[in-house]
Amino acid sequence: MVNVSVIVCTYNRAESLRDTLQSLVDQKLSNGLTYEIVIVDNNSTDRTREVVDGFMAKNGRPFIFRFEKRQGLSFARNTGIEAASGQVLAFTDDDVTVHPDWVQEFWNCFRETGALVVAGKIERLWYCERPSWFQDELGGPLIVQDLGNKRKKWDIERHTVGANMAFHRTVFERLGRFREGLGRRGELLIGGEDREIFLRARSAGLPIYYEPKAIVWHKVEKERLSKDYMRQWFWDIGRTLGHEMDWKWHHRFSVAPFWIWKQTARSLGRWIASQFKGTGAESERFASEVWLRHHAGILQERFYHWLPTQKGKQKCVFQEKGGFSNEN
Asked: 320: pLDDT confidence band, cut at 50, 70 and 90?
């Protein structure tokens, strides 16, 4: 059996994927460690297949290619799991490059700690200048994961990030695979699939570790630092969070948890106040707008869940059986 299967799901990022695959081909291994690279094309329309075929033809590393027509990151990841043969399944994205020791350090952590889930460090790799309107509080789309420079058990409430995480194969046998109603789908920036499986693993009491030596660099590109991208990301993630919230009996009257109403009111107050500030307050006006959108997205999704009619269910960005509606 292969020791580690690296699963890369990709959608219309052919040129960026080229960098990711090159960094995976250049891995340094020791003590007989073996790995394979599983590439899942999630219905791309660009030159993705050409790039993949080029790497498979020119490099001696073992590649597995799958095409997943069903649009959605969780569909693609589950297809990768089915194709993989490794004891450890490591996931990364098509807009990162990985450290030359990435596979080895993941394997070392599993072997030395008895972990069943391991998350590595994610650092930002800037490909563009930081806009004047950008504030650090808007850093969610610019993925980072840094719990320090020492290996340790995962002891914080924040969930692991899908761009750099690994699971022992038995986790999927025990808990099931990624929830297919969650995760990015085409141009929709819905998320939550990594958070959901992390919460399942934590609830099951599985040992989860952070390995700082398993490093990936996540690209920060101009397209991701546009105002339109930020608006969409915070809105879609808001709707994701609204969908994932547990239903409580008192939500029949409040629609959503009271703390969401409170945060929405604060965001509205902040946005109103920002409109009266001077010309140098562009960053504050935009940050307040984005957070207001985020909380409004949560409330909208909760409202659609609250509606007792089929019309309400159809308007949910998520459907009951795990798919997305045609909205948006």
From this structure: very low
Q: Which of 224, 246, 262 is at the close of a domain?
A: 224
Amino acid at 290: V
Backbone φ/ψ region at 176: left (φ over 0), alpha (ψ -120 to 50), beta: left
Here the tokens at position 47 are 């030159």
Residues 87/35, Cβ–Cβ less than 8 Å: no
Residues in the chain: 328
Average pLDDT, the chain: 87
Residue 33, Cβ density class (10 Å: 0-12 exposed, 13-18 middle, ≥19 buried)? middle
Q: Can you give the residue range of the structural domain that contains 276?
A: 227-315
Task: Tell me the per-residue pLDDT of 8-54, one tens digit each, with 9 for 90 and over.
Answer: 999 999 999 999 999 999 999 998 999 999 999 999 999 999 999 98
The answer to whether 227 and 287 are in contact (CB under 8 A) is no
Q: How does residue 222 score in pLDDT terms, banded at 50, 70 and 90? A: confident
Do 35 and 103 belong to one domain?
A: yes
Measure the N-to-C terminal CA separation of the chain; round to a whole number of Å. 43
Give every CB contact of residue 256 below 8 A, 6+ residues apart in sequence.
242, 245, 298, 299, 302, 303
Q: Which helix (H) or strand (E) holds 126?
A: strand 117-126
In the chain, what percentage of residues exceed pLDDT 90?
52
Name the domain boundary from 224, 245, 272.
Answer: 224
Q: What does the alpha-carbon distance between residue 52 and residue 15 come to, in Å, rounded to a whole number?
A: 11
Calpha distance 144→157 (Å, rounded)? 16
- Could you tell me if 152 and 245 lie in one domain? no
Domain assignment present for 210: yes
Count of the separate structural domains present in the chain: 2
Is the same domain home to 56 and 203? Answer: yes
Taking the model in full, what pTM does it have? 0.83
